[in-house]
Amino acid sequence: MEQLLEPLDVKVRVVHGFSNKTRLQILECLSEGEKTVTEIVEIVQGNQSNISQHLACLKGCGLIQKRTQGKYGYYSLRNETVRDFLRLFGDLTLEIGRESACCAHHIEGE
Q1: Contact in structure between 35 and 43 (CB atoms under 8 Å)
Q2: How many CB atoms lie within 10 A of CB 100?
């Protein structure tokens, strides 16, 4: 039986989906509409294995969904709330701007 997560644990999982540059690129790519893995790989300019791992993470975090049609899988954002959050996140980062430079050392380690 699957254990229910506490609300704070769910938030941590969701934030984890946004905590990596490649995953964020994938989310932004999918905000434009449904895409196949091949399309995502081309847009993000990554390798298929790495992108597939990030897609699995994003799906596990509950941020994206997969629809299978024939031999192809089509990925999309889970819903409009995720799209809205991405937009608000973008607005926040524009507001914060250079003030976020104090966290630069955390990004270098990825």
Answers
A1: yes
A2: 12
Number of H helices, E strands in the chain: 6, 3
Residues 6+ apart with CB under 8 A from 63: 14, 17, 27, 77, 78, 82
Integer CA distances (angstroms), 15 to 11, 12, 38, in order:
6, 5, 25
Q: How many CA atoms lie within 13 A of 38 on its CB side?
A: 3
pLDDT tens digits, residue range 11-30? 888 888 988 999 999 999 99
Angle, alpha carbons 14-17-19 (nearest 5°): 110
The total of other beta-carbon atoms located within 10 Å of residue 30's CB is: 25
Q: What is the pLDDT of residues 34-64, one digit of tens each?
A: 999 999 999 999 999 999 999 999 999 999 9
